[in-house]
Specification:
This protein is α/β, with parallel strands linked by helices. It has 6 helices and 7 strands. The protein binds S-adenosylmethionine.
Length: about 200
């Protein structure tokens, strides 16, 4: 397993991901606030905290048992009843019916053999008019060669999102400076998409 606790400590206190902010803005423009969100692989909980603060109920999942010891102490007492935290792997996680699935820098860490079933559960769980927000990693990303990762070409992402109206699909491609991580090429798709159909 990667050093996820080291990662949780390093990013603790950072703000919500831009994809989540965009999805929440889109809901707000529709006059919808305070639904149920599933935060997939929530980590130390930057996005879960934003959702809770904006009045959402959240089911946060993560495969690492330490993730929620970083999150719970930062949840205001009054909001704690609105959070359910579940330690579960991608392979085993159930996805409750919800308004939003938030998967920030999460799905690429799912093993390829478990991805299709996980994706089907995610799509089935989102109500019509609900949203998915998060990142896919591209096929040109350095980590695409790791056997336990799931990466997608742009065309494959578009295929996954059939049945959704794409509201954001920002592609980012860059190299980390060698002194940061040597060598690391990033190819990312930042996505927000609204499930078709009427609620
Ligand atoms: C890059 S972090 C993203 C955390 C958070 N969503 C964020 O935006 O910062 C990836 C997360 O995936 C989780 N993870 C890795 N492998 C997993 C697995 N097989 N099942 C469930 N979660 C897993 C890690 O524990 C970690 O919290």
């Amino acid at each position: 397993m990667q050093d996820w606790p080291g990662y949780f400590g390093a990013v603790m206190g950072k703000g919500a991901r831009e994809t989540l902010v965009a999805a929440l803005d889109a809901f707000a423009r529709e006059g919808f606030t305070g639904g149920l969100a599933v935060d997939v692989a929530a980590g130390e909980g930057r996005d879960t905290l934003e959702l809770l603060t904006q009045g959402w109920r959240v089911v946060a999942t993560d495969g690492h048992p330490d993730a929620f010891s970083f999150l719970w102490p930062r949840v205001p007492e009054v909001l704690k009843p609105n959070l359910t935290a579940v330690v579960v792997t991608f392979a085993d996680m159930q996805v409750p019916h919800c308004d939003l699935v938030n998967a920030s820098f999460a799905l690429p860490f799912c093993e390829p053999r478990h991805f299709p079933a996980l994706w089907s559960r995610i799509v089935a769980a989102i109500r019509p008019g609900g949203r998915i927000a998060g990142q896919f990693f591209g096929a040109r990303d350095s980590w695409a060669s790791l056997p336990d990762r799931t990466h997608h070409t742009r065309e494959e992402v578009l295929t996954l999102l059939e049945g959704f109206e794409i509201e954001m699909m920002n592609e980012e491609e860059r190299d980390d400076p060698p002194d940061v991580r040597n060598p690391k090429h990033w190819q990312l798709f930042h996505v927000v998409a609204r499930k078709s159909g009427r609620w």
